[in-house]
Write a structure and sequence with these properties.
Number of domains: 2
Helix content: 55-70%
Shape: elongated
Structural class: mainly alpha
Number of strands: 2
């Protein structure tokens, strides 16, 4: 982190926000409050990176459209939630997901915003392994076998299915995804013994992947 960022975190981030996201008049005050009161300096660089990612996506929307939407407190609330989430995002890929979810929220009707807030809450609770499992299960369900197999191998490259501890962890993660309403985790039986990724995706999982724009493309 450079010296200017360490010495003047609020000025630095607000300036970055205005430069990248000038189409959102409410952004400056929101960012100033968040940075000045609650965001540690070491997370500010994540926020600036998020601005860059989000700014690139907002370029494809009409400025008047964004300004109109951001007059609604519900959209401002979603933006604030996304800013918070971005400060905890360790990878640019995760920041992309959050930015995609926010832009999809902008395009949604006001009555659908609660769905986007719920999806963001879920995204904040799941890790990268969980996402790999979801992408695999949804593609398997949609009979996109080649894509599903690719993601199966990505999962197995992290968690060796021959290792009993890894096998148990994969099963445990599916039970956790079940608790979030994303999948139906089928209990392990003799019939499923050879296939440890056997849960069925729910509509909520498909909606989440659609909103963050990750079907494993």
């Amino acid at each position: 982190m450079n010296e200017d960022l360490q010495n003047k975190p609020v000025d630095y981030v607000v300036s970055s926000a205005k430069g990248i996201l000038g189409a959102i008049p409410v952004f400056g005050p929101l960012v100033a409050e968040l940075v000045g009161n609650v965001i540690p300096n070491q997370r500010i660089d994540r926020l600036v990176k998020f601005f860059q990612i989000l700014g690139n996506k907002l370029q494809h929307l009409e400025k008047e459209f964004v300004e109109y939407k951001m007059k609604n407190e519900l959209f401002i609330d979603l933006l604030e939630d996304c800013l918070w989430a971005s400060t905890r995002a360790l990878t640019d890929e995760r920041k992309e997901y959050i930015a995609n979810l926010f832009v999809q929220g902008l395009k949604a009707e006001k009555g659908e915003l609660l769905n986007h807030k719920k999806l963001l809450q879920i995204l904040n609770q799941i890790d990268e392994i969980d996402l790999l499992i979801l992408i695999f299960l949804v593609n398997k369900y949609n009979k996109k076998i080649d894509v599903a197999e690719d993601y199966r191998q990505k999962i197995y490259s992290v968690l060796d299915p021959e290792n009993p501890n890894s096998k148990e962890l994969i099963y445990t993660r599916q039970k956790f995804l079940d608790s979030l309403g994303l999948v139906v985790a089928i209990n392990m039986t003799d019939e499923t013994e050879d296939e440890i990724l056997f849960s069925k995706p729910r509509a909520l999982a498909i909606m989440l992947l659609n909103e963050i724009n990750n079907y494993g493309k």
